[in-house]
Amino acid sequence: MNRLNESGMTLIEVLAGVTVAAIFSASIYGVFVSGLSLYEKTSSLGQARDETDYLATMIMNEMYIQKPDFVIPYEDGEKSGVMLRRFSEKEVENYLIEQPDTSDDTYIYFEQNRIVFDTITADEKTSGSPEAGTSPELVLTGETIVLQPADSYIRMRCQADCSEGLPSGIIELNLSILPGNSRVAETMDPIQLRSDFGY
Fold first, then answer.
1. 125 is in which domain, residue-wise?
2. CB-based contacts of 139: which residues, under 8 Å, 6+ apart?
3. What's the pTM value of the predicted model, to 2 decimals?
4. Alpha helices for the chain (secondary structure H)
5. Is residue 27 part of a domain?
6. Does residue 30 lie in a domain region?
7. Three-state DSSP state, 40
8. Are 66 and 86 in contact (CB under 8 A)?
9. Which positions carry the signal peptide feature in this UniProt record (predicted)?
10. How many domains does the chain have?
11. 4 pLDDT exceeds 60?
């Protein structure tokens, strides 16, 4: 007499196992995707903050290196920023001080989504009338960030009219940026880095 082997699984048990496995898989996948998304956002924001700090440091270093005698607001079409004017060194001869009417002008301005540094020397001025931006020394655009030109600025803070410039005062710098990663950028507002420094 042959006996049938009845130790297998029923259809209901198989379906129950598949359902439980699907639920666990969906939960694990959801945790994995949200963890990956959080890592991507944190990484992009970290890189964006580092690069924004670098841009602000470059601007402050330029101010420190130039040691301007005068700072003048600068506007020209889409260009907006400041001009640092440093007078030429005085020449002393027979106890008389001769001050030639020359100066080096360094422009730091925003143009669209980039920051431009351009110096026009006294020699360049005497040889012609150069225009700021024709041959900039440094252009910062950002590799991991997108500069928001509408909200980014470098300007003088003045109690009264300062269109002619001032020998001392406060410069306000505001960098409005989004991470270069478009998936992260579309889910957030721009980051604002604000800094004020004296000259």
1. 48-198
2. 114, 115, 116, 117
3. 0.70
4. 11-66, 122-127, 182-185
5. no
6. no
7. helix
8. yes
9. none
10. 1
11. no
